[in-house]
Amino acid sequence: MASAKATMGQEKQDHFVLKSGHAMPAVGLGTWRAGSDTAHSVQTAITEAGYRHVDTAAEYGVEKEVGKGLRAAMEAGIDRKDLFVTSKLWCTNLVPERVRPALESTLKDLQLDYIDLYHIHWPFRLKDGAHKPPEAGEVLEFDMEGVWKEMENLVKDGLVKDIGVCNYTVTKLDRLLRSAKIPPAVCQMEMHPGWKNDKMFEACKKRGIHVTAYSPLGSSEKNLAHDPVVEKVANKLNKTPGQVLIRWALQRGTSVIPKSSKDERIKENIQVFGWEIPEEDLKVLCSIKDEKRVLTGEELFVNKTHGPYKSASEVWDHEN
Ligand code: NDP
Ligand code: 1BO
Ligand code: 1BO
């Protein structure tokens, strides 16, 4: 992990240095299902808890709220250049001519003139108004190379500092790398002790691509923070289960973007610097069965009768 200098509140916050040389703060605030208090959460995260990294997406429907929170933080004296803001291009916009307008709409909602990282949210193109799960003909062909070229143009034009992908497989990543002039700086994927995602993680490491762990707590309220193994390690270390899960991600060498809409948890989730999970307890955490993804993509992309993806396994190129 790259060492970091910025002092945030009581904490020292580590950063990772991306291929581009840009620094990414290791812990960011997630905003999926963040709700009507998102502006408040973002502002609290930055001005009170010391976050400098926020992860959002057009599809989350909260970018205007995130923008208000960022604006308030900047009005309170935080410099734009010290913030790291990530957003994502949604599946209905995965056509070359829609890339720039989609980013421009995101910038407008966020009240920013550039973002630090722009991801392809999922590597599947959906028809406008697609149902969940998709009906016949609603999952369309995706011109990955053409879309990526437009993403690269956003970097060249200074609208985006880095570009990346989410929910990729090794197969899709290697296809992208064959034509990319600017390789993805970051790959975002589901990752927690209940889904370690080792194969994709190793593939990214080998290709020099930084990994961000999403859903680090297991995503829902019924999450891994209630797992007895995690609770036991947390009690031993005198930390909360949430902190143990976030620290686990950092110690694996990934950045991590826990979501909370509760001020106390937002603060708790970034108190993960200046201490470590000892080796023996990492082993205990790794004994949690690597069972399954929370986000299979099935609801979004699988049509069991008409395809083109007839199972979650096809969504993930049968890689795991
Ligand atoms: P997380 O793993 O971050 O878990 C969020 C859930 O855990 C919420 O129910 C939250 O409740 C609860 N929680 C938060 N802090 C704690 C704590 N300390 N102890 C116990 N429970 C806690 O799930 P997400 O799926 O939201 O993932 C995080 C972020 O990753 C997303 O918000 C999004 O930004 C990104 N993401 C990206 C994806 C992609 O496709 N690229 C897919 C999924 C996520 P409460 O809010 O009430 O505190
Ligand atoms: C709705 C997309 C899954 C979270 O990123
Ligand atoms: C550091 C923990 C590794 C889990 O696979």
Question: What this model shows, in words?
Answer:
The structure is a single chain. The protein is α/β, with parallel strands linked by helices and 320 residues long. The protein has a single domain, classed as Alpha-Beta Barrel (TIM Barrel). 36% of the residues lie in helices and 16% in strands. The chain is built from 12 helices and 14 strands. The strands form 4 sheets. An 8-stranded parallel beta sheet has the order 5-6-7-8-11-12-13-14, with helices on one face. Strands 1-2 form a two-stranded antiparallel sheet. A two-stranded antiparallel ribbon has the order 3-4. Strand 3 and strand 4 form a beta hairpin. Helix 3 crosses helix 4 and helix 7 packs across helix 8. It is globular, with a radius of gyration of 19 Å. One 1-butanol binds next to helix 10.
Computed over alpha carbons, the radius of gyration is 19 Å
CATH architecture: Alpha-Beta Barrel
Return the domain count. Answer: 1
Helix/sheet category: alpha/beta
> What's the CATH H-level homologous superfamily?
NADP-dependent oxidoreductase domain
Please provide the ordered H/E string of secondary-structure elements.
Answer: EEEEEHEHEHEEEHEHEHEHHEHHHH
In terms of DSSP E residues, the strand content is: 15-25%
Number of E-type strands: 14
Q: How would a textbook summarize the main sheet?
A: 8 strands, parallel
Bound molecules: NADPH dihydro-nicotinamide-adenine-dinucleotide phosphate, 1-butanol
Largest beta sheet: what is the strand line-up? 5-6-7-8-11-12-13-14
Mean pLDDT: 94
Shape type: globular
Question: The CATH topology, please?
Answer: TIM Barrel
Helix content: 25-40%
Low-confidence stretches: 1-12
The number of helical segments is 12
